[in-house]
Amino acid sequence: MLIYEFKLKSKGKMTTIPDSQRLFGFLMNNTKKYFENEEISEYTRAVLLKKQKCMVSNLMPDGYYPFPKEYIIHKFSVAKEIYKKIKNFDFIKKEDLVNLIRKNKKLSIDDLNKINFLKTNLEFIQKFRLESQVRNLPGLPNVAYSLPIISLFNGENEQKNFSFFVKIEENSLLQNSIEEMINDIKNGEVISYLGAKSSSGLNIFKVYEIKKMAKKISSENSRAYLNLGMLLPEFSKINSENSFFDLHTSDRKPYDIENNVEKAICFISSGSIISKEDNAIDEFELSKSIHNKYNLLYKDAIIFGNSYLEEMEV
Fold first, then answer.
1. What's the DSSP call for residue 58?
2. pTM, rounded to two decimals
3. Domain segments of the chain: what residues?
4. CATH number for the domain formed by residue range(s) 2-62+159-312
5. Is 51 helix (H, G, I), strand (E, B) or coil?
């Protein structure tokens, strides 16, 4: 297996932090520059059927991992003052997280004060939509709406550098596509639009580096993982009793097309600790992707749920 780390710089404000589903879509859309649609469809079908292994993380602040709050609260049986402190931890430096997980003593405020963390800040700006121009009907009143703006701060310093991980099989279509992207970056940064309102200067990033990391062999002895993306779980392979996870309900496509009834898709959120059952060979068996019947434009579209999992000694 090969691991690539994408380095990005935010070029404006964000309304959302792109998750692994959106980033997989970005990768597949970028692949169109180098391969035919039929080849891409064949690859996504292989991912769906687990004939190709592919894992993608959420976009994260560069050098930081999502903070596993539920696990830390359980591990240290934290007091109220400790809980008040760590509830502000959204992302934590990787080395600080490793040291915290290995810690066997009681957790203190002094310990937390030494940790390098980031807190998510959410604010809203007011926007107006000119309905009379949009609908071409003079006299319609303007519509006011609020737009969420997300930023990440370490004290007073705003984080502008981000990264995400991709783990794929060697000589796969996506690996070949990423190698082509690396060549493109040598000729200039790759601009990526990772959210809505990009025409207004929002959710725009520049990919300035793609690092090819050492080959990583999955160990059958690995038992627990930190989830770094949006994971569609294979619960038959997950040891729920020894896991600590939050469920996120997707509201992107809440309706069943056939019956027009509400239908939710639940993912395991990033920052969750996931333990595997004995019948799971490796981390790839803990997640899945499903067919996206809501996408009427592409019959082979999938809802990507193969989140990147980082092995942890918990």
1. P
2. 0.87
3. 2-62+159-312, 70-158
4. 3.30.70.1890
5. coil
